[in-house]
């Protein structure tokens, strides 16, 4: 672990100035991912700018009936917030499905969005990895890729995004808001994560030097009947091998509104718009759910050892949507 | 050293539950582990390991590191002090001790340098900047049956490589029912909670060492040999050890390098391993590929039993995971063949790991028996009852205590086995399929000669000295209970000191032989002392000491098949849509000799059962074919069962007396880990109707079973 400087930013302008002055600087939230990566030499920042004194730790209603979640809100506080639990239950469930109680007490919303893949080749400095060392190759393509991407990958990188929270945010059309020295900006989550293409080292569309200040959830009545289910290789404290955020609004037996996002299948949380389109206006039964999942997965390009994700995601979609439909019928 | 806290033991303590004597010290932090000892002028080492799997070190560019702040030395093969080349220690010849002695890289993660600095942070930073270049050679980590380099070794500590009687092929041909199945288990890692660490310094002509080891005496002896020292000049202590499981039984790189560095620098040096280093420097359990062929009549009586196992070893040392030895004492057949093959590859050297051989071997054999029961239309317990041997199938020796079927009977009663519907795949609870499974367990009861000293002090107290190790098992408490019983005095008058090589020869904490071997020696010395005092012996000012050596007593023990036994039961829930498996309950009933401390014994047994659960469903070291290194060498990537995976687990035992055995204690450290993975796997079959013969039974394997996975693993 290399020596680094540490500054505690007093205000937003100070934080942005510190980050701008040092190209090797990284913002620090809970440090639950960044510090790990520093220990094994994957991240080597010259400066850490601690954001936890900034006034970004609140969850507030927006004027149009949505929620604004500050970037330094901890995962624990996010999951426990009454408005989140009542209006976006899948988000609270997703957060609680991740990490451990201790980590959730430290981890922040901004850091959660920016966490790095857990691909074992990315976290091993001796291994080839285009994301860590552009041009060095992708060891996962022909190596261990049981938990790698089946959707939206490229021959340059097949890593998956590890966040549970971001999957629920993707389902609910969250917008990432940020600040730069030139003023504020925002990115819908659908545009926040870049496609992999030939530059897997470029993960987000955030402008250089930008600081995430929060996430805005637009009002979404459908989200009140939502669920997050995560499948992993043990009962807790593991990253997903497949996860699903779903919300379902059925009126007169017909799907009026539906939200679906897949986790652990792509380099970003995967909003399943094909499936949503297939379901909307149609019947809410197992056959329709399966057909919708298949429509989304038609574009999947599994590798030799991760083809199980296709039946997994299909079964997960049918199971969770069926649960939601049955609960709506009660 | 912090003295162990002595809290009151009940008189006649053996057989009554007692919390660990040092428990308060451990939970308050007063107990010191190897990396906790302070020393004036302490320097810190950081090990650099190879990033290639095979080749030669071309260069070590130590000059930049030497210029970094606080750096005192960079040890590498070009400058390191020489060690005894043909070292042969407690476990025989061992080239893994030849740290920094040559330029050859035998596997990924091999030590190639060690940076010593004033602080661990300085050592680490310099170590990470050290540039080592290699002339790489093609490596081979391709573990597979049929590999041309595989061979049958003459013998391993578990017995001959091959044991055979009768005509297996003829018996198979004459059998009504034949099971022929292949099983595999992955690389498994011990990962004791306490990482390996050692501190070494010279004091008044003696090499003082604090190490975390399962056997202070053996480690001191081996260390002396390796460095060409008079054994009496090495003093090694390991008062508290945070788990071992077999990984702390040998002289390891951290200790060797700490001694090298202190010899070089003339000041105390401490070296601790990182968690990732614990995946390449301390041994592991090899992968296994096993084939079991069973032939039986329609009544389930075995005519043929063949178990062929393959494990990997390194190019440095032959270590055989003797999976196929399990059947040699468990099940008889006219045609009986068990073979343990081994395949040297460019991988780290495997070693003993909790129930070596028995754990993976029982998985294959006990699953194959479950398949045989299914094919014969027999209850799995009835099948085992039908095949209970009267003498050792290979040895022909009589059994000394053989209560396997009693364990099954009691376990079946408590588990509700009689109500079980044998049909697979027919019980549902929401999205979950439910199944139950059972398996037998056994672990041999060994003993080693040990010395002990018991002193009657002038103040009326007693001190017991023995080079035992308490690696978290509760051995310190159990041995104190045994000493109190043998001396027949108030517990508050007995103080037990352990884990100090000066206390003399003693077997290490391993092979489930510790408490049996040590307890025997304590019993001998304490009884003699009690008799001498009863006859009026005077206690001089410096105390009256009786020493014991169980060498003769151990030799006098009549030859017999001595084993602990157990019956394992598991209930699982499987979601066939997601591949998730949850174990809902486990029960283990054991016959394991005299139980000294029921509280810590239960913990040992349930711990072993959890070990089996974790092996069945979660654990797997994933070796990358291209690099030869592990892909998941940390606790985020290598999954142990989490708390949420561990259900209500019940372990209990039957009385298991052996009147011919002077000590009556059998080991309990390993038997819980035998058969438990098979019970879980058999329950998964009962839930789903699909046999899973490759561990761990991951969700992807449930979703796409072996039969559909042609060509992939």
From TrEMBL, chain A:
Q: What domain of life?
A: Bacteria
Carries keyword Transcription regulation?
no
Supply one GO molecular-function term. Answer: FAD binding
- What SUPFAM superfamilies does the database record attribute to this sequence? CO dehydrogenase flavoprotein C-terminal domain-like (SSF55447), FAD-binding/transporter-associated domain-like (SSF56176)
Presence of keyword Lipoprotein: no
Tell me where in this chain the FAD-binding PCMH-type domain is found: 1-222
* Alphabetized UniProt keyword annotations: Oxidoreductase
Pfam families on file: CO_deh_flav_C, FAD_binding_5
PANTHER family linked: OXIDOREDUCTASE, XANTHINE DEHYDROGENASE SUBUNIT C-RELATED
- Per its record, how is this protein called by name? Xanthine dehydrogenase family protein subunit M
UniProtKB/TrEMBL annotation, chain B:
Q: Which residues form the Aldehyde oxidase/xanthine dehydrogenase a/b hammerhead domain?
A: 28-138
Gene3D superfamilies found in the cross-reference section? Aldehyde oxidase/xanthine dehydrogenase, a/b hammerhead (3.90.1170.50), Aldehyde oxidase/xanthine dehydrogenase, molybdopterin binding domain (3.30.365.10)
Q: Where are its TM segments located?
A: none
Q: Which UniProt keywords apply?
A: Molybdenum, Oxidoreductase
Q: Name one Pfam family in it.
A: Ald_Xan_dh_C
Q: Name one GO molecular function term.
A: oxidoreductase activity
Superkingdom to which the source organism belongs: Bacteria
Q: Where is this region: Disordered?
A: 144-166
Is Oxidoreductase among the key words of this record?
Answer: yes
This protein is called: Xanthine dehydrogenase family protein molybdopterin-binding subunit
Source species: Streptomyces morookaense (Streptoverticillium morookaense)
